[in-house]
Amino acid sequence: MLFLHMQITVQKIADTVGGKVVGNSNAIIYRPSKIEEATSGSITFIAHQKYIPFLSSSEASAYIVDDSFSVEEYTSKTFIKVENVYAAISQLLAIYDAKNKQKSGIASSAVIAPSASIGHNVSIGEYVVIEEDAIIEDNVIILANTFVGASANVGYNTKIYSGVQIYHDCKIGSSCIIHANTVIGSDGFGFAKQEDGSYSKIAQVGNVVIEDNVEIGAGCTIDRATMGSTYIKRGVKLDNLIHIAHNVIIGENTVIAAQVGIAGSTKIGANCMIGGQVGIVGHLEIADHTIFQAKSGMTKSVKEKGTKWYGYPAIEYNNYLRSFAIFKNLQKYVDRIKTLEAKIKNIERKD
């Protein structure tokens, strides 16, 4: 782990991310920084042209750039050229983040049922509660004030941040990250209306299954299934403040931005991209590789793969843009029609 002491040469960083150094390969790096804030000892990156103007005044000791980036006019600076800037930065930051790994051990204030199974090299923080027959696999980190319900399972190498609530029978895969105050397995919104107008609760006897390599942001709520399972498939990434209702299925490697709501029994395909504040009604089927622009409202299923949608109710993306071009000038068109109508009336009077 080269970066634990936060002092490393540019050359060793280049070797780590598979890049080529142009400049001083022996420069010492202490920290990663944004290019706007970088100082001596920082390494930063340029992945978009809008950040190039910062180069002239930046004091960073090294810059990660694309292979095609022209460095000739910056002879006083040091660059690491890579094939994929974002992939290199992701790898670099993951290594820096290793220093934040919590040491293994169980806090004295943690409450763990005798029948719970706790794996090797596990870290359990202050005031964590783990109920009967729960399984905590090897290398799991559970931070303070987290609850793991009866017969729940937290998979290998998963990190659970403070205040997460994992209800009974829910299953969390390996190498997942769940951020603070997220709730996994709360009851689905199921009620039966009675003759007198009141509502009777329908028991929610299913669970939530989260597969491997899933990351869930802070303050999310994923409801347990009425029967069966609510599924979050392998590689899914959820932003903060998302609600996923009972019996929803989110396909592999789908990414969802903040404040999205997905109603019950909807099936989202693999590799979809869902923008912030999108609302999706229940019992729909969304094809793989579908893209929803922010604030869209989806009211019908999407059968064709790879389509884009926008608006409320959402329509095909290019159709929306064409329609919006008309809509934003609607008053002008109304005024023009009124003028034409007045001209027509004048002509009719003359006749």
Task: Provide a compact summary of the structure.
With 351 residues, the protein is an alpha/beta fold.
Protein model, in words:
By secondary structure, this protein is α/β, with parallel strands linked by helices. It has 3 domains: 93 residues, Udp-n-acetylmuramoylalanyl-d-glutamate--2,6- Diaminopimelate Ligase, Chain: A, domain 1; 215 residues, Hexapeptide repeat proteins (UDP N-Acetylglucosamine Acyltransferase, domain 1), CATH 2.160.10; 30 residues. Helices cover 15% and strands 28% of the residues. Strand 39 and strand 40 form a beta hairpin. The chain starts with 7 loop residues before the first strand and ends with a helix.
What percent of residues adopt helix (DSSP H or I)? 10-25%
Radius of gyration: 27 Å
How many separate helices? Answer: 4
Taking the alpha carbons of the first and last residues, their distance comes to 92 Å
At the fourth level of CATH, the homologous superfamily of the largest domain is Hexapeptide repeat proteins
Shape: flat
Structural class: alpha/beta
The tally of structural domains comes to 3
Major beta-sheet overview: 12 strands, mixed
Strand order of the largest sheet: 8-11-14-17-20-25-28-31-34-37-39-40
Mean pLDDT: 93
Under the CATH scheme, the architecture of the largest domain is 3 Solenoid
Provide the CATH topology of the largest domain: UDP N-Acetylglucosamine Acyltransferase, domain 1
Strand-residue proportion: 25-35%
